[in-house]
């Protein structure tokens, strides 16, 4: 319970995991005309539920707990994705190729004739 935080804005009330706005567990959007419960889904979409009264939240307790568990213990797919992201974040390394060997010129340069013995 120490890792759960809340944040109230003008438009909604949100419950966060470790006070991270990217790890939100659920949002509540209460106006005079409507009561909405908004839950995040794995594909970064939102699942919106109209509530008749506040007790209806209990119908979604299993879903809310599963969202929290996903943050606490990420699934293997999420861990693989995180590992891939870490690999992508490594700095770009420039490797220089060795120089090709110098070749002997068959024709001397005109401007070097005065320096050549001959």
Chain-wise SSE layout:
Layout: E1 4-8, E2 13-17, E3 20-30, E4 35-40, E5 46-50, H1 61-72, H2 76-88
Antiparallel strand pairs: 1-2, 2-3, 3-4, 4-5
Q: Can you give me a brief rundown of this structure?
A:
This protein has 118 residues and is of the alpha+beta class. The chain has helices at 61-72, 76-88; strands spanning 4-8, 13-17, 20-30, 35-40, 46-50.
Structure, described:
With 118 residues, this protein is of the alpha+beta class. The protein is rod-shaped, with a radius of gyration of 32 Å. It has helices spanning 61-72, 76-88; strands at residues 4-8, 13-17, 20-30, 35-40, 46-50. β3 (20-30) and β4 form a beta hairpin. It has two helices and five strands. The termini are far apart. It has a five-stranded antiparallel sheet with strand order 1-2-3-4-5.
Main attributes of the structure:
single chain; five-stranded antiparallel β-sheet; 27% strand; 118 residues; 5 strands; alpha+beta; 2 helices
Output the number of helix runs: 2
Name the average pLDDT: 77
Write the H/E string, N to C. Answer: EEEEEHH
Largest sheet report: 5 strands, antiparallel
Indicate the overall shape.
rod-shaped
Strand order of the largest sheet: 1-2-3-4-5
Distance between the termini: 93 Å
Radius of gyration: 32 Å
Beta-strand content bin:
25-35%
The SS-based structural class is: alpha+beta
